[in-house]
Amino acid sequence: NAGVTQTPKFRVLKTGQSMTLLCAQDMNHEYMYWYRQDPGMGLRLIHYSVGEGTTAKGEVPDGYNVSRLKKQNFLLGLESAAPSQTSVYFCASSSSGTSLPGELFFGEGSRLTVL
Amino acid sequence: RKEVEQDPGPFNVPEGATVAFNCTYSNSASQSFFWYRQDCRKEPKLLMSVYSSGNEDGRFTAQLNRASQYISLLIRDSKLSDSATYLCVVRADSWGKLQFGAGTQVVVTP
């Protein structure tokens, strides 16, 4: 039972480079999220999706784009990486929003360093 | 002002002792409250929900104080395996968007 899988786990980029983080879940969850976690700060929501083909901005969306072409996958793209995007990125999924019990299922995280 | 605030710690706790810590939230309309646990360099995992009347899950007790806008977590008979960062999480709106605190670190020592 894989749950939520993120790839890659680690990546080093140079300023201006682009990359895509892939998140895959096998729990048939409708909702998927991308968060970033920085020292001394709580997880901050970048973008989220409430279903296949839909995406919406979260708290800190600038510099990121997302796509949800398939229900099980949620991609996070950085078009032109900046050092401020050095962070740990977590993907999460949940079964629903309105009756959410509060349980998000997280991937193991992707550590991104932008030089 | 952060919407969810926690004492970062660390709380150094001898094995077998009790530790408690709070989390304050700024939005009085907040509807649901949770504690997540995050081990070092790992992903967060749900520890327990926090109900209005307070609730226990084994050695863990969670309380909600709506008047003063804080929630608390108490850990009894601390185990070495309880060493982790505990994230306070608040749901403020109906669709389920969650606000995370930065976490309280607990270190249980032998």
Query: What amount of the residues of chain A lies in strands?
Result: over 45%
Summing up helix and strand content along with how strands pair, one would put the structural category of chain B as: mainly beta
Helical content class of chain B: under 10%
* Largest beta-sheet details of chain B: 6 strands, mixed
Q: Which segments of chain A are poorly predicted (pLDDT under 50) over 5 or more consecutive residues?
A: none
Given the C-alpha coordinates, what overall shape of chain B results? globular
Tally of DSSP β-strands of chain B: 11
Radius of gyration of chain B: 13 Å
The dominant shape of chain A is globular
Termini separation of chain B (Å)?
37 Å
Rounded to the nearest angstrom, the radius of gyration of chain A is: 13 Å
Most residues in contact: chain pair: A-B, 25 and 25 residues
Written description of the protein model:
The complex is a heterodimer of chains A (115) and B (110). Chain A has 115 residues and is mainly β. Chain A is built from no helices and eleven strands. Chain A has strands spanning 4-7, 10-13, 19-25, 31-37, 44-49, 56-57, 64-67, 73-78, 87-94, 105-106, 110-114. In chain A, the strands form two sheets. In chain A, strands 2, 4, 5, 6, 9, 10 and 11 form a seven-stranded mixed β-sheet that branches. A four-stranded antiparallel β-sheet of chain A has the order 1-3-8-7, with no helix packed on it. In chain A, β5 and β6 (56-57) form a beta hairpin. Chain A starts with a strand and ends with a strand. The mean pLDDT of chain A is 92. Chain B has 110 residues and is mainly β. Chain B is 0% helix and 55% strand. Chain B is built from no helices and eleven strands. Chain B has strands at 4-6, 11-14, 19-25, 32-38, 44-50, 55-57, 60-65, 70-75, 84-91, 98-100, 104-109. In chain B, strands 2, 4, 5, 9, 10 and 11 form a six-stranded mixed β-sheet that branches. Chain B has a five-stranded antiparallel β-sheet with strand order 1-3-8-7-6, with no helix packed on it. Chain B is globular and about 40 Å long. The chains are: A mainly beta (115), B mainly beta (110). The A-B interface holds A 31, 35, 40-45, 48, 50, 58, 90, 94, 96-98, 100-104, 106-109 and B 2, 4, 8, 32, 34, 41-46, 49, 87, 89, 91, 94-103.
